[in-house]
């Protein structure tokens, strides 16, 4: 049985090492490939490594690798990814490794960085290991490599790396489950604990579900009150529609504020907001970034634009034509069903909803299909930044879904002006869509958990004798009047700021302190350069006047230009 590789920093050597990430290779992995991968993971960054700690698993000839990191490596990486942490004065500022002693709990890595943050740092570090001078994957001569290619992404595409995933901490997970799944506790969810264990994306998802569920109470109470009023049906619908419009706008603006507070509290609000790293799947010829001076891939922008306008846009138009064709078929079916219902007196009234239901299923299927196509196209466009990738993907999906979901509704309400058909279409669209979403959100996870629980029950008798590496493997398996309403909506959107004022003030204070620190650093560098120039000129001709000041000004301007 192998052992953990030694950390690059001698002061971080420890007898007990907590594995944070597991790498599962293919069953018949070539041992040369496994040794090469371990070498690249533990090597220093100056030679293209990750400076992480790696364990070959219980069996040196097996297909598992366990990865961890020393305290200093985690702290340096926390500065690189741009995490914000609590300073000694209680403010939330960007973490600095050189100033780590002045951050709260920085001496205890388990308290300073959550489990999710440590695993995120390791996964990000692994994904950013690049090819240096290898021509092919050791042990697999047919799998060629090119300089700057992401090694782990290439191993996954070549089916050599089966998967890699973060590992559970059973003790923390049990405590979180006891707080989260308590049937006697009616309090809100432990969002901060969810963030500490699962990370920001999962915590933000459950926070939104909690926020949205609570926000449904006012609209439900108002709807019940409207039903009890002695008013005409049309007046009730108008009144409820106005309140619904105001309620939805207020809820979304309040959610923006709430999510901003969460992001600030977790230290992720401004993470990598200035210099975002290239995506793992970004490909191109290697070169020096003129801003960060790092060795990174480069891809011409004109090629990306050519792909967008010559391929992605025509494909979007093709799917929009499919959507319009489906709408045409829906109206033809609606006319046929109406004629059939009028000719047959004994026909069920639910038949009238059949075209709307079928069209809703068609719309849902087209949404899912085009989303997969849009992901492939956006990946093929080779965007450099993750934000750019997400923006282009969102635009594609949003444009298609707007036309696909609402074109028929606009046609019915504006051109046909058929209130009965509009009511049927809305009822089928809203009700059926909610049923499908609820099945996906609740029933599918419940069935999956039930099946996994049955499978776990069959293995329960032998789990005590199961090797630790097999338990780790199990962890990897486990979207006039109307003008007045629009004006009210816009006014409410502007009246409620997206970010609370106290969060803005703290962010501005951090930016001001960072600017002052930068000016102080430049001033110190300017003084050092001035002393050097003065010493040189004193040695040459004994004068330290105008030329020294001019040189100092030039040096300062040069530093500012580099920034």
In short:
The chain has 17 helices and 10 strands. It has 563 residues and is of the alpha+beta class.
Please outline the major beta sheet: 4 strands, antiparallel
Number of helical elements: 17
What is the succession of H and E elements?
EHEEHEEHHEEHEHHHHEEHHHHHHHH
Share of residues in strands: 5-15%
- The amount of helix comes to 55-70%
N- to C-terminal distance: 50 Å
Q: How are the strands of the largest sheet arranged?
A: 2-3-1-8
| Mean pLDDT level | 80
* Estimated radius of gyration: 30 Å
Oligomer: single chain
Helix/strand structural class: alpha+beta
Can you tell me about this structure?
- The chain is of the alpha+beta class.
- It is 63% helix and 7% strand.
- It is built from 17 helices and ten strands.
- The strands form four sheets. The protein has a four-stranded antiparallel beta sheet, with helices on both faces. The chain has a two-stranded antiparallel sheet with strand order 4-5.
- A hairpin with a 2-residue loop joins strand 6 (136-137) and strand 7.
- Helix 8 (200-228) runs antiparallel to helix 9, helix 10 runs parallel beside helix 12 (386-416) and helix 11 (354-380) runs antiparallel to helix 12.
- The longest helix has 43 residues, at 301-343.
- The two termini are 50 Å apart.
């Amino acid at each position: 049985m192998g052992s953990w590789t030694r950390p690059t920093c001698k002061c971080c050597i420890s007898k007990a090492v907590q594995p944070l990430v597991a790498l599962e290779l293919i069953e018949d992995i070539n041992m040369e490939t496994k040794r090469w991968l371990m070498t690249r993971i533990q090597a220093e960054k100056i030679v293209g490594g990750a400076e992480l700690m790696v364990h070959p698993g219980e069996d040196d000839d097996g297909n598992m690798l366990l990865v961890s990191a020393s305290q200093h490596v985690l702290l340096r990486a926390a500065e690189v990814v741009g995490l914000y942490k609590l300073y000694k004065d209680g403010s939330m500022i960007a973490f600095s490794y050189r100033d780590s002693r002045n951050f709260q709990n920085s001496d205890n890595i388990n308290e300073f960085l959550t489990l999710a943050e440590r695993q995120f740092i390791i996964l990000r570090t692994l994904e950013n290991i690049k090819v240096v001078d290898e021509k092919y994957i050791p042990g697999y001569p047919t799998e060629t490599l090119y300089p700057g290619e992401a090694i782990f992404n290439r191993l996954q595409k070549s089916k050599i790396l089966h998967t890699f995933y973060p590992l559970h901490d059973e003790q923390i997970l049990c405590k979180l489950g006891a707080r989260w799944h308590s049937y006697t506790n009616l309090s809100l969810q432990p969002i901060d604990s969810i963030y500490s264990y699962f990370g920001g994306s999962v915590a933000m998802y459950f926070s939104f579900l909690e926020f949205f569920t609570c926000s449904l109470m006012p609209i439900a109470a108002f709807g019940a009150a409207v039903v009890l009023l002695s008013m005409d049906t049309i007046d009730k619908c108008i009144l409820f529609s106005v309140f619904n419009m105001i309620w939805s706008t207020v809820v979304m603006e309040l959610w923006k504020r709430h999510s901003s507070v969460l992001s600030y509290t977790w230290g992720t609000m401004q993470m990598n907001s200035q210099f975002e790293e290239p995506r793992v799947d970004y490909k191109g010829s290697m070169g020096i970034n003129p801003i960060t001076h790092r060795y990174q891939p480069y891809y011409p922008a004109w090629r990306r634009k050519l792909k967008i306008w010559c391929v992605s846009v025509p494909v979007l138009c093709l799917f929009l034509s499919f959507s319009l064709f489906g709408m045409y078929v829906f109206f033809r079916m609606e006319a046929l069903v109406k004629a059939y219902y009028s000719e047959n007196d004994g026909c069920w009234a639910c038949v009238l909803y059949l075209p709307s239901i079928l069209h809703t299923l068609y719309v849902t299927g087209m949404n899912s299909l085009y989303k997969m196509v849009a992901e492939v196209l956006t990946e093929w466009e080779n965007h450099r930044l993750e934000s750019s990738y997400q923006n282009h993907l969102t635009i594609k999906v949003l444009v298609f879904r707007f036309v696909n979901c609402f074109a028929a509704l606009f046609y019915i309400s504006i051109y046909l002006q058929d209130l009965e058909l509009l009511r049927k279409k809305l009822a089928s669209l809203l009700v059926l869509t909610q049923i499908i979403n609820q099945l996906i959100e609740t029933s599918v996870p419940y069935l999956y958990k039930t099946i996994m629980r049955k499978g776990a029950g069959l293995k329960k008798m032998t789990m005590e004798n199961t090797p630790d590496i097999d338990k780790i493997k199990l962890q990897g398996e486990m979207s006039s009047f109307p003008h007045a309403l629009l004006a009210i909506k816009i006014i409410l959107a502007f009246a409620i700021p997206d970010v609370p004022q106290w969060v803005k003030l703290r962010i501005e204070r951090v930016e001001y302190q960072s600017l002052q620190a930068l000016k102080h650093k430049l001033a110190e560098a300017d003084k050092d350069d001035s002393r050097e120039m003065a010493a040189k000129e004193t040695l040459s001709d004994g004068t330290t006047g105008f030329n020294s000041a001019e040189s100092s000004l030039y040096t300062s301007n040069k530093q500012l230009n580099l920034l």
